């Protein structure tokens, strides 16, 4: 089969790495791809479907260019990585001409791309989540904060590359977040509306369901680290690391989340005329009252996918095809690796998620059988691999358990160098505490 991957980050590199292992892959393409993805696929660097949703007109034009390529090249399956392409309707455009594509339609992708829609959806069908209010003006949002106090959570309603959520422990922090989102528009039109939620106490974990509009199958659970600083301090990022499996999400809690969240959401989306096909990422807060939804994503998480896919023994191609065709039964049973664990440490450019420099030479970024280095933001300059983003590399180790994988991941990080590199040194700290082991 001929398969096309949309995107260029570490998430898409992980998809290319796993799909390339399928015996049914004849040719693998990626648009625009990256130096890491180029090890597995032919990269279409000239088609820029990695644009932000704020550049929607250009993104839509690039989607049509990619559709023309997929048609002329006889692509059998297109796999979409970034949420912006989904929000811009790439699935709808491809389906219009009969192309098979993995991911939700623009209407179904609203479950991530419009947080107000998502919260209203959950409220309408009784999905457990934080109490919330949506606002179209900063003055009303500020009045609400002054009335309810802190701690409180402020969210840009639209897409913000994983950085649109601020947990505010004081009213002053909440006021600042509201002004930045709605008045300063640091996230552009994604901040035209915001959602204010109650602060939930508990531990977060991620549940993944591959869906075909009606049925679903779960992948390995994971836990990521969103904050830039150790001890989960500082501003949120796109993700500084992750590990799998997340033992805090027990089989009983997974079953509960499936029954109370995944199943009613699939039923309701179908009833509304937007059947959900693709991966449904459920961010859960494990509270004293049970699991509650923090957020939905309409695509694979990054860096979670970098630890989830190494623990999938089944053929990923079959799963994605079954979902895209609306019939997961053709994919066969999902086999997960319960004998290993995976840990991912993200190496970032100093200054991220604020200002940072690029073009720094990277040395030592070589994968092995048990260490896979996924490229998040890299480029080629002549024969050199250089930094080209805030998050640069996602260093993933697969080993017998979490402590061993942590040690292996940090050992690999120590062998990689680029100027002003930054990484958290406490990835998987909650898992290590649960097994009585100190941080790496």
Quick summary of this structure?
This protein is an alpha+beta fold and 440 residues long.
Descriptive report:
- Helix 7 (138-148) packs antiparallel against helix 8.
- This protein folds into three domains: 2-111, 3-Layer(aba) Sandwich (Rossmann fold), CATH 3.40.50.20; 131-198, 2-Layer Sandwich (Dna Ligase, domain 1), CATH 3.30.1490; 203-434, D-amino Acid Aminotransferase, Chain A, domain 1, CATH 3.30.470.20.
- The termini are far apart.
- The longest helix is centred in the middle third of the chain and has 21 residues, at 251-271.
- 52% of the residues are buried.
- The chain is an alpha+beta fold and 440 residues long.
- Strand 13 (227-229) and strand 14 (233-236) form a beta hairpin.
- The protein has helices spanning 10-19, 56-73, 83-87, 90-96, 106-113, 115-125, 138-148, 171-183, 251-271, 305-308, 316-324, 402-414, 429-434; strands at residues 2-7, 27-32, 42-43, 77-80, 101-102, 132-135, 152-156, 165-168, 194-198, 203-212, 216-218, 223-224, 227-229, 233-236, 241-244, 277-287, 290-297, 341-349, 371-375, 378-381, 384-387, 391-399, 421-422.
- The strands form six sheets. Strands 12, 15, 18, 19, 22 and 23 form a six-stranded antiparallel beta sheet that branches. A five-stranded parallel beta sheet has the order 3-2-1-4-5, with helices on both faces.
- The model has no long low-confidence stretch (mean pLDDT 94).
- The protein has 13 helices and 23 strands.
- The chain is globular and about 60 Å long.
């Amino acid at each position: 089969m001929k398969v096309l991957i949309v995107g260029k980050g570490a998430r898409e590199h992980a998809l290319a790495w796993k799909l390339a292992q399928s015996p049914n892959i004849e040719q693998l393409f990626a648009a625009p791809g990256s130096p890491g993805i180029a090890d597995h696929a032919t990269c279409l660097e000239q088609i820029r479907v990695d644009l932000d949703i704020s550049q929607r007109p250009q993104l839509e034009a690039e989607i049509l260019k990619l559709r023309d390529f997929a048609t002329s090249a006889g692509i059998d399956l297109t796999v979409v990585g970034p949420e912006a392409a989904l929000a811009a309707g790439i699935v709808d455009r491809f389906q219009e001409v009969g192309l098979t594509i993995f991911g939700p339609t623009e209407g179904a992708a609203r479950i991530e791309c419009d947080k107000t829609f998502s919260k209203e959806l959950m409220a309408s069908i009784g999905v457990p989540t934080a109490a919330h209010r949506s606002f179209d003006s900063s003055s009303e949002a500020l009045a609400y904060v002054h009335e309810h106090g802190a701690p409180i959570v402020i969210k840009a309603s639209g897409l913000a590359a994983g950085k649109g959520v601020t947990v505010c422990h004081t009213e002053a922090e909440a006021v600042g977040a509201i002004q930045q989102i709605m008045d300063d528009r640091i996230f552009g039109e994604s901040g035209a509306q915001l959602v204010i939620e109650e602060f939930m106490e508990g531990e977060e974990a991620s549940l993944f369901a591959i869906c075909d509009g009606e049925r679903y199958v779960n992948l390995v659970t994971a836990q990521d680290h969103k904050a830039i600083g150790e001890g989960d301090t500082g501003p949120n990022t796109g993700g500084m690391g992750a590990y799998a499996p997340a033992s805090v999400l027990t089989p009983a809690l997974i079953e509960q989340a499936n029954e109370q969240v995944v199943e009613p959401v699939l039923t309701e989306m179908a009833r509304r005329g937007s059947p959900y096909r693709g991966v449904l990422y459920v961010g859960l807060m494990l509270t004293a009252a049970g699991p509650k939804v923090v957020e939905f994503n309409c695509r694979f998480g990054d860096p979670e996918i970098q630890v989830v896919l190494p623990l999938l023994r089944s053929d990923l191609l079959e799963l994605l095809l079954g979902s895209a065709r609306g019939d997961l039964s053709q994919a066969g049973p999902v086999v997960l690796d319960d004998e290993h664990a995976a840990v991912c440490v993200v190496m970032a450019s100093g200054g991220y998620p604020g200002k940072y420099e690029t073009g720094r030479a990277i040395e030592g970024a070589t994968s092995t059988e048990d260490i896979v280095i996924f490229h998040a933001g890299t480029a080629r300059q002549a024969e050199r691999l250089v930094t080209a983003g805030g998050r640069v590399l996602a260093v993933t180790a697969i080993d017998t358990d979490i402590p061993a994988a942590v040690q292996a991941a940090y050992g690999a990080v120590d062998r990689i160098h680029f100027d002003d590199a930054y990484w958290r040194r406490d990835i998987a700290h909650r898992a290590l505490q649960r097994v009585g082991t100190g941080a790496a």
